[in-house]
């Protein structure tokens, strides 16, 4: 198997980039990205293992966010 495409390599990369967030008061590892849209900004949450749905709330950096858009699960 190609080392660059191995599952363990992907998990290790995700773990090195991720931060701990609370999704419905349960700790999860996730990567948070942000898009600036003029006066507003959007945050996107990417989780490798744990799934979440529209209506969940996420605690990140002492702020609480509500998942309001459709969630894409592979």
Structural class: mainly beta
Care to count the β-strands? 5
Largest sheet composition: 5 strands, antiparallel
Assembly annotation: single chain
Number of domains: 1
Strand order of the largest sheet: 3-2-1-4-5
Radius of gyration: 14 Å
Q: What amount of the residues lies in strands?
A: 35-45%
Global morphology = globular
Mean pLDDT: 80
Order of helices and strands: HEEEEE
Low-pLDDT residue intervals, each spanning 5 or more residues: none
Q: What is the rounded distance between the termini?
A: 22 Å
User: What's the number of helices?
Assistant: 1
The helicity comes to 10-25%
In short:
With 74 residues, the protein is mostly beta strands. Helix content is 15%, strand content 43%. It has one domain (3-66).
Tell me what the structure shows.
The protein has one helix at residues 7-17, and strands spanning 19-23, 26-37, 40-46, 57-60, 63-66. With 74 residues, it is mostly beta strands. It has a five-stranded antiparallel beta sheet. Strand 4 (57-60) and strand 5 form a beta hairpin.
List keywords for this structure.
single chain; 74 residues; mainly beta; five-stranded antiparallel sheet; 1 helix; 15% helix; 43% strand; globular
Summarize the topology.
Blueprint: H1 7-17, E1 19-23, E2 26-37, E3 40-46, E4 57-60, E5 63-66
Antiparallel strand pairs: 1-2, 1-4, 2-3, 4-5
